[in-house]
Amino acid sequence: MAAVQDAQVIAFDSFFIDARQRLLFNANGESLPLPSRAFDTLLFMAQHPHELIDKQRLMKAVWPQAIVEENNLSQHISLIRKVLGEAPNQHRFIVTVPGRGFRFVPQVRALEALPWLAAAVPAERAVDPPPHTASADVVVSPEPSHHSRTWMMWAAVVVLAVLLGVGYRWLNRPPPADSAPSIAVLAFADMSPGHDQEYFSDGLADELINQLGQIPQLRVIGRTSSFAFKGRNEDSRRIGEILGVNHILEGSVRKSGDRVRITALLINSADGSQLWSETYERKLDDIFAIQDEISHTVAARLQLKLGVQDLNAGGTRNLAAYDEFLTARAMLNSNDDATLRAAAPHLEQAVMLDPEFMTARLWLIDAYLRAALSSAELKDAAIAMQEAAIDEVVKRARGTPEASFALSYRAARGSDLVELERLLKDAMRIQGSPGARARLRYGQFLMGTGNSAAALRELRAVQRDDPLNDFSRTQILLALENAGQSAQAEQEIQGFLRTPGGNTRSIHGVAIRMAQGQHDTARLQRAVQAAIDSGYMSGEAAQWLRQMLASPADALEKLRRSAAESHLQGDVYFASNIAQDAAFLGDKQLALEGMKALLNSNFAFETTAFVLWRPVLRDVRSEPTFKALLRERGLAQYWRTTGNWGDSCRPLGSDDSECR
Known about the structure:
- This protein is an alpha+beta fold.
- It contains 30 helices and 17 strands.
- A hairpin with a 4-residue loop joins strand 3 and strand 4.
């Protein structure tokens, strides 16, 4: 059993335990939420399968330097069972032996690496697989039944990636660090006695990223890329090379009761030398002063002049509100729909405790969007709550870039695209992460209006400051494809798949849709097989794609039947699938119906309109009904007003246009 106890990855049933990164994954490569101590409990049991592990032995392994009650262990066992999907009366994974302990009963296997990474990179370079919220492109069997939802979510990679955008990836090496000051703030280590304050240590690092990002002279790498090295013992010089920065800020947090100990280190990434370090031992309510001291000290060490600017602009000094905010931010980085939905109440509590906490208000607007996307039943209620949250921001910050950022969510559901563009451009003036989010959305907006070349410029700028972000890379691939630069897109896809962490659902999804757009059946077959081999495509989705290739007439009949049964209502992903698959199979009318349902879904313009310009829909864009869609969604008026006709359309006379 020593091989299992020493294994980097332990597989059982349809789950994988990554001991090095301390993460639990399911068969789809999705990371499952599990607190630190619960993970330790599961790991220890999996390392000792079929053994009767008495409670004292298990508690000593999980809490080696603490005295805890058996109730704590029971709660963690219950949580593990829930995450694994084990019903109360089942014993598929954990058997309780009354009065004695527990037995972990499934067969276990020791692996060198996670299976979706083993073929692409050496095990020692493997990194986290992507969250399911940035999973696959719109490739799916057309059946809209309840049982098809799981693999329909796989198939929605690019749509979901466009909608939410999280991940930890890189395609090409970013530009080398230049002489201008730049910094990456790595995730601070949780050194708390219970190792249960990860949300707090991550949140502290995230807040430092936001504060330092408000210094105009300093380039600060985004959270996704900086946190990609979490749990990895990577040399600071290598991190600096990968991220293209000349400084690294790292540290640790020990939180116990009302006391906190924070250690921060500033490192020169060129040679790994330490430029500054400090340990702060204070009461917890001094956390804001500590953040300010660290930010100002870093600025001073980098010889940056701050003037009188407030690096905590939009933040809070209310400790309870701050804790609620950090809890919500951790949830918004989850890949679990229920966890994503649970973030909004914490943000609501944060702004109730501190009504002027503007950063929390902006995240609350975004959290309502995610709630709407995660559940069709919650969509209308979530949008109504988002509307109220937008009104609150405008009331408190009228005429500011923050108000523009809030209003852009409302405008994105309307047809005045000129106003939406104005709001997004104004929101880009916000310093820190909200401004970066606005720039990313503006890049998506440009792609939705058919201006793929202009979108590439914005998306490349976002990528420069967050080079390992899988979401922005996916958007770049879409923009390249829509701009007709398929060779460049293919080159970047292949580069992505060969790099650490690049073997993701979103990339396989783009590769499949690109092959469809070129009607290249051999390439499509290769792309499908690659997705299957990597573990990122379900058998049903693969069967559907193969049916489209082998029997297109039968596939089209099935697609039409599914569209008629569903009326294309309520599911933005399904509508996108119908539009693209119908176009591939030659049914222009059905493709147009899918596009109409997609554009009328009441979701943000920039999250759906990019589909209009994908090559697979090229032949549909010449249809008169397509012109009507463009007028209804405000695109024709936008082009006439701005003159930004983009890559696929041009004016005809004073009130007409044609698209290709």
